[in-house]
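CO-FOLDING WORKSHEET

Operator: S.A.
Ligand of interest: manganese (II) ion
Run index: 197
Mode: holo prediction, single chain
Checklist:
[x] sequence pasted
[x] SMILES validated
[ ] output reviewed
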Amino acid sequence: MSKYFQIIHDILESKGEEYETRFPEVRQKNVFTISTLSHSSASQVYWKLKGNRGTFSYESITGKAFFEGRSKHEYIQKRLVDCITEYPLEFKTEKYKLIGHIDAIDFNEKFIMDLKTTKLDTLQLGRLREYVLQVGAYCKLMEIETGRKYNGSVFVLNGKLTEYELTREDIDNSWTIIIKRADETYQKLKELGQIRE
Ligand SMILES: [Mn+2]
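OUTPUT RECEIVED:
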């Protein structure tokens, strides 16, 4: 058996903690992810209380849903030759830090993309709203970081390709909501004794 059996085994085995392994700072109680906050403040609190996402069985790791989602992302990301992919962002306050990774960003066009591989046949409005919050917050963070305005779109791949282009209003609203949720998360974790000032 070659040494790569163990290496591939470990890659599959650590899938459940993939994000934590690649970005260990997310294990800190006061580091929140924009993608989780775009779902809700409660989910961010949940993950902080739970610790990590646990390990998965081979069956679930190699199951269709995970690989389909990842492979669609990676197939497209590799071919977006004018873009930087998995571009990291952060926003630090005195209380907490927000982090995020942009699926693809075109610095010349000042354009941000997030790919979504939802299995829903008809995209639910609630779900789309979450996606918009995430991309909107990324756009705003790029603006804060560079002083230039960024636009962005959500691309949904679910049998067909749909684009949702964010408006300026979407972007400003998203940032307000994400910061509000981050404040709530911080407050809740403090009440639960998870964070000390
Ligand atoms: Mn994505």
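REVIEW:
The two ends are 51 Å apart (CA to CA).
The chain is about 50% helix and 20% strand.
[x] output reviewed
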